[in-house]
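Appendix C. Worked example: Small ribosomal subunit protein uS13
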Amino acid sequence: MARIAGVDIPNNKKVEVGLTYIYGIGPSTALKIIEESGVDRTKRVSELSEQEISAIRKFIDSHLMVEGDLRKEKAMNIKRLMEINCYRGYRHKNNMPCRGQKTRSNARTRRGMAGRGSIKRK
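Step 2, the predicted output written as structure tokens:
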């Protein structure tokens, strides 16, 4: 298994798909990484040479923020919103949708189970 950015990439996947296992890299970013590092798209991860893996690692380290750094930055952005008490921060604090969705009838995944769902019935 190739280890890139602290993540084990499965050997049986194509490089393009395998890179999407890294948090912060989607299909279009994976394609950009492959083109910039000069790796063949059709290769599988097990067929990559050490030079190709190091080229991919080098590109990711120098151009992208992935895994722990990205997670930390996202958490810090949400924390900043909550500290300055803006509308989005208030919604995050109260565990409600922040992007304008209605909450009267939906938003169950964000707000939790409906009030009477917590009452035990015989």
